[in-house]
Model the fold of this input.
Amino acid sequence: MTTTLLRIVMILAAVFILPKAARSAEAHWPETLTIGTGSPGGTYYDYGEGLARLLTRKLSMPVFMRPTEGPTENIKLLEAGEIQLAFVTLGVAQQAWNGTGEWTGGKQFRAMRAIFPMYDTPFQFMVLQDSGILSVADLTDKRVGIGPQGGTTGIYMPEFFKILKINPTIRTGSWSELAAAMRARTLDALAVGAGVPFPEFAELEKRNKVRYLALTASQVVALRLAIPELGPSVVPAGSYPSLTRHYQTVGLYNFAVAHRTLPDDLVYAIAEAVFANHDEMMQNHSAAADTVPANFTRNTILPFHDGAARWYYNNSASGVVRGD
Done:
């Protein structure tokens, strides 16, 4: 028997022969969980890899991460029952819940329930220093990468440019592909809404001199008036080596969500695992600094899963939950 065939037999044995208790901590829990994350090279992807490892260990069940285009695909997969957990930005979640985003086709997606806050998503603009591009307004007629079409940036950035009366040539794709195009000078800029530090921005800085283009005060006002779900956001100085001043911008908050049919005690255990292991979450990605119970108040759009709601209620009495 070849080594490859032997490995296949061992995997099948683990799935089909081992008793159910060995594959799931509780008999009424699903045998596995899958988390819808994002594109390679993005914050969702790195955060999701770490979360899957943590939950696999703490829940005593296999938890997998699934690379996707981001929130829109995650919401569709969750609604279809193909995944059980997902990452969303609240703005995209609001479009889904109400069926108002063009990508929804008028359908209301209401299977998702909030579990825990992840982090803020500041919108950020980067160019190479030798590009000669000095402001966001200079992006007209330039080639700008905005990530996967179904990602947060892919949904919001075309609207941003329309509001700001900027007319670039937009390119979509995975963040790793777009960063490679930036290095090859076939792209002029990257525009992203993501947790900080954004992995591909950090990688670009290692080999290139870059410039971050800040929104002007009037541009921030125009965006917030036109897109009410946007809030003030900041990328702190030092988040990237060349960022010496706070970068003022706009942003959206991210939440992890679950399918509404997941058992309450399983969702409670997920919340407990995440909040009780904050240091490990931080090792996965520093954006998890905001993955704390007090930030549950940032969600004013989605109902919480009953299991998560019980976790916040039980821990409010002991003073773990603040900000409410």
